[in-house]
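User: tokens in, sequence out, please.
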């Protein structure tokens, strides 16, 4: 396990709270022992840990299961991974793992202490699993090596979404929910992905969930995004870009995308 001094130094280096570094570090060790399961990492954590090391930090781990798994079996596997991560890393992961069924699959919440005393409030890592009958992976799954910017050895491969598939789901998310991280992710990823690959799968991604590409619904929620911008992202990134600039760029991107989308396939 790394020292408290290293955690403090990393927090200063990245310009984020120490708790953000603690969570990022613990996520890596937990992910090491979850990575053997038949599932693919996705979302912001996938971007940060496998594709772009200087990306924003993420609070949770998101996976899509590649095979059907019931809640009890999955919970037992998560608890096993927690035990293994604790034994190898020295991180004080708690035995308690909360498990609930969600609309899209399952959620497990893992708790740990690092800098904090054992009697203090533990830090949580939410681990979300999407069932294969709720989501379809349309592009080839990648095998990527973890970024571990810490002094101890934590080296392993992870099955993950391609960057283009992450981007397609992030675009869809803008029309499903109001989370500033989705707006930020679409803005940041746009120049880094192969747009042609995103466009090929985007209509199907919307169809799978029955989501409509309706730009007006996004514009109606502008203030909601703006009000949550700093609170949602301030602890995840050192230099948070101006909301209005990000929003305007994304809306322009989506207008162009909407023109293409209307000529392709829009789910009813």
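Assistant: Sequence out:
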């Amino acid at each position: 396990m790394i020292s408290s001094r290293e955690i403090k130094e990393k927090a200063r280096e990245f310009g984020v709270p120490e708790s953000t570094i603690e969570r990022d570090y613990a996520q890596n060790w937990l992910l090491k022992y979850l990575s053997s399961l038949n599932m693919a990492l996705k979302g912001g954590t996938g971007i940060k840990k496998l594709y772009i090391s200087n990306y924003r930090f993420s609070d949770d781990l998101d996976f899509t299961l590649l095979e059907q798994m019931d809640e009890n079996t999955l919970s037992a596997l998560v608890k096993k991974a927690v035990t293994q991560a604790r034994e190898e890393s020295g991180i004080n992961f708690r035995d308690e793992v909360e498990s609930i069924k969600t609309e899209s699959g399952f959620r497990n919440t893992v708790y740990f202490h690092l800098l904090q005393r054992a009697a203090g409030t533990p830090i949580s890592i939410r681990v979300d699993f999407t069932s294969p009958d709720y989501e379809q992976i349309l592009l080839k799954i990648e095998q990527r090596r973890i970024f571990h910017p810490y002094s101890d050895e934590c080296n392993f491969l992870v099955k993950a979404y391609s960057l283009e598939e992450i981007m397609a789901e992030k675009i869809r998310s803008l029309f499903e929910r109001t989370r500033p991280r989705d707006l930020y992710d679409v803005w940041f990823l746009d120049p880094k992905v192969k747009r042609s690959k995103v466009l090929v799968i985007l209509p199907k991604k919307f169809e799978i969930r029955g989501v409509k590409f309706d730009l007006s619904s996004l514009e109606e929620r502008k203030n909601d995004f703006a009000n949550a911008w700093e609170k949602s992202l301030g602890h995840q990134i050192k230099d948070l870009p101006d909301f209005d600039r990000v929003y305007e760029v994304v809306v322009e991107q989506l207008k162009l995308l909407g023109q293409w989308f209307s000529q392709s396939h829009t789910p009813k």
